[in-house]
């Protein structure tokens, strides 16, 4: 896609959407949001970027191949589910810890957050796998 | 322990996802995992038999609030049956599936399906059951079209369309249930059904659920998707489907009927019997008219489903116990018949009955494997099918359902006829013009699972006594849901 407008838009939208995605991710525990929706937003940003640039450069800028993101996400989910079993507690038992941070007062970290992070990675990874393959195939330019 | 049948396949999926194209590694992971699953399932069965129903609340949230995982004898028996089929199929697929399909990660979706099936058997929450159904279906869609052959895509499309329609009905039913009863927990719902007068809309919800399960279990008149799709994928996939997929629908039906319906609901139980009669006869007659081994066996699945629904329709302890016995027998026998068909098809290069023959002389071992399974399915004593059908007929006569019992015996005769049709076409028929040179001999790793299953089928028939003792206990648990409700809700949690 050679349009100047879309190229500029995607360039500036990418960081904005990623930030929104992070915010949505963290508010998901008590409010609407969470890993799934955050992943949709993040994947949208990356796919939009891939549509105006080459898919090859997107693969390069990702930390790893999208399929590996899926595997990493599944491992996070597994750990979050399995953690309770080690102490013969039920599956998905929630462990929490609080961290004091200067700017946002305090953050609660726990296995549910780990699970959500896993969901985030699985959804992002699988969406990117599918869409990057399609984008390679049809060549937008 | 309770969560392991879900966690083990999930862990295997993670390793398989990162295994790339290292096929040998994938095969090792798959066979090892399915062996571990089998051991775990047997342990669970023993523990449930000794200590009663196992319950676990996910995240520690007690029953009506969180999702509870419940394993009673019925679930445990099916977990073992699933693990046996999974074990056999993972070994069979090592050599029985082409490289291309292994490279597109057959085993990854294989364990996805096993995870979905195990999850559906374990969960004590109706929405969660829907989710596991979806997990199972998504994996099965991919397995169905893995390899991208034209025929497979056509079959897969039919299968997918009708399955998604079933899921939609299931979800709609759950929506109505939740709207009126305010809970999704099966035990809690069961209590509400017993204690308060519920609005007529609940009947609609039950009708939607039963329709959805009838679609999944290929009962009359919703069976048409099965024969048009099951013969398209390779035997490593279709044997897995034949053994397990439709049984999950029956499992859900048994759960709903035993937990939600009154002790004898004239309408529903009568309807189940009518459906079962049509399912049996139509399936058997259609099976007899086919000339492709896999299509004969596909229609045969439908016919056998009728027996299970019939046992459920009788709704007596003997009827339910016989239906569960028949279900276990059917899972093993159907998988084995598809496996043997796979071995035959691989060596022959075709599945058409007209074009083969002479296996009796060339491969007496495989002939014996087929013979025992076919006779078990047809119901010759002392094999498992005989006891299944005999007990079902006994239950039918005891509860004064002479007509449907008569139909089931008539169907058994047609079953004998079509099993002999395959017997005659593939194994017995003498043909001079068949060249055996240059054909692949069946691999050991493909014959072994079939032998293993045959031994289990023999045990199920010859050891019917001890097996049936467990099943009567299971039927007792199912017919008196107060034990199930009590252990899930821990009694102090009453309304």
The structure class of chain A reads: mainly alpha
**Unreliable stretches of chain B, pLDDT < 50, 5 or more residues?**
none
Give the count of structural domains of chain B.
2
Helix content of chain B: over 70%
| Biggest pleated sheet of chain A | 2 strands, antiparallel
Order of strands in the sheet with the most strands of chain B?
Answer: 1-2
Task: Please tell me what the overall shape of chain B is.
Answer: globular
Structural write-up:
- The complex is a heterodimer of chains A (141) and B (495).
- By secondary structure, chain A is mainly α.
- Chain A has one domain (4-138).
- Helices cover 70% and strands 9% of the residues of chain A.
- Chain A is built from five helices and two strands.
- Chain A has helices at 4-27, 35-52, 55-61, 66-86, 111-138, and strands spanning 96-101, 105-110.
- Chain A has a two-stranded antiparallel ribbon.
- In chain A, a hairpin with a 3-residue loop joins strand 1 and strand 2 (105-110).
- In chain A, helix 1 packs antiparallel against helix 2 and helix 4 packs antiparallel against helix 5 (111-138).
- The longest helix of chain A has 28 residues, at 111-138.
- Chain A is globular, with a radius of gyration of 17 Å.
- Chain B has 495 residues and is mostly helical.
- The relative contact order of chain B is 0.11.
- Classes of the chains: A mainly alpha (141), B mainly alpha (495).
- The interface between A and B is medium-sized, with 18 and 15 residues.
């Amino acid at each position: 896609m050679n349009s100047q407008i879309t190229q500029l838009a995607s360039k500036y939208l990418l960081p904005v959407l990623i930030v929104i995605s992070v915010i949505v991710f963290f508010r998901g525990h008590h409010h609407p949001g969470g890993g799934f929706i955050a992943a949709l937003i993040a994947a949208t940003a990356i796919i939009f970027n891939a549509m105006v640039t080459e898919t090859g450069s997107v693969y390069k800028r990702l930390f790893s191949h999208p399929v590996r993101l899926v595997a990493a996400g599944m491992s996070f989910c597994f750990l979050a589910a399995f953690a309770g079993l080690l102490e013969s507690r039920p599956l998905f038992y929630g462990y929490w810890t609080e961290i004091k941070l200067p700017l946002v007062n305090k953050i609660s970290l726990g296995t549910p957050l780990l699970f959500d992070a896993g969901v985030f990675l699985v959804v992002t990874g699988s969406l990117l796998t599918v869409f990057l393959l399609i984008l390679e195939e049809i060549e937008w330019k | 322990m309770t969560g392991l049948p879900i966690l083990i396949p999930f862990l295997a999926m993670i390793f398989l996802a990162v295994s790339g194209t290292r096929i040998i590694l994938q095969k090792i992971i798959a066979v090892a995992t399915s062996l571990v699953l089998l051991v775990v399932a047997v342990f669970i069965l023993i523990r449930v038999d000794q200590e009663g129903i196992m319950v676990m609340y996910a995240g520690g949230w007690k029953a009506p609030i969180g999702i509870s995982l419940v394993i009673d004898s019925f679930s445990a028996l099916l977990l073992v049956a699933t693990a046996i089929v999974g074990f056999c199929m993972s070994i069979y697929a090592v050599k029985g599936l082409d490289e291309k399909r292994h490279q597109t990660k057959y085993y990854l979706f294989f364990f996805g399906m096993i995870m979905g099936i195990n999850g559906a058997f374990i969960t004590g929450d109706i929405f969660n059951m829907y989710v596991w159904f979806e997990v199972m279906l998504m994996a099965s869609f991919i397995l169905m079209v893995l390899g991208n052959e034209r025929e497979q895509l056509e079959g897969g499309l039919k299968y997918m369309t009708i399955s998604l329609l079933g899921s939609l009905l299931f979800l709609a039913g759950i929506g109505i249930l939740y709207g009126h009863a305010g809970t999704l927990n099966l035990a809690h719902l069961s209590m509400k059904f017993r204690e308060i007068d519920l609005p007529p809309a609940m009947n609609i919800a039950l009708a939607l659920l039963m329709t959805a399960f009838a679609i999944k279990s290929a009962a009359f008149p919703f069976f048409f998707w099965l024969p048009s799709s099951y013969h398209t994928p390779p035997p490593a996939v279709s044997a897995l489907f034949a053994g397990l997929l439709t049984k999950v629908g029956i499992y859900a039906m048994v759960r709903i009927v035993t937990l939600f319906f009154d002790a004898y609901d004239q309408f529903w139980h009568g309807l189940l019997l009518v459906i079962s009669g049509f399912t049996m006869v139509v399936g058997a007659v259609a099976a007899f008219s086919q000339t492709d081994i896999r299509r004969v066996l596909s229609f045969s699945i439908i016919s056998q489903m009728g027996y299970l629904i019939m046992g459920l329709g009788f709704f007596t302890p003997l009827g339910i116990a016989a239906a569960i016995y028949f279900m276990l027998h059917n899972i093993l026998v159907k998988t084995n018949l598809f496996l043997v068909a796979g071995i035959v098809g691989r060596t022959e290069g075709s599945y058409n009955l007209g074009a083969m023959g002479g296996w009796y002389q060339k491969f007496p071992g495989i002939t014996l494997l087929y013979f025992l399974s076919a006779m078990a399915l047809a119901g010759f004593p002392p094999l498992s099918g005989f006891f299944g059908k005999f007990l079902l007929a006994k239950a039918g006569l005891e509860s004064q359902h002479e007509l449907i019992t008569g139909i089931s015996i008539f169907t058994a005769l047609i079953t004998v006829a079509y099993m002999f049709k395959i017997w005659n076409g593939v194994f017995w028929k003498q043909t001079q013009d068949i060249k055996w040179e240059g054909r692949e001999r069946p691999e050991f790793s493909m014959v072994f699972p079939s032998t293993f299953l045959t031994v289990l089928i023999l045990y199920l028939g010859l050891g019917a006594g001890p097996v049936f003792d467990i099943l009567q206990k299971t039927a007792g648990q199912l017919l008196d849901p107060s034990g199930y409700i009590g252990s899930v809700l821990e009694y102090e949690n009453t309304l």
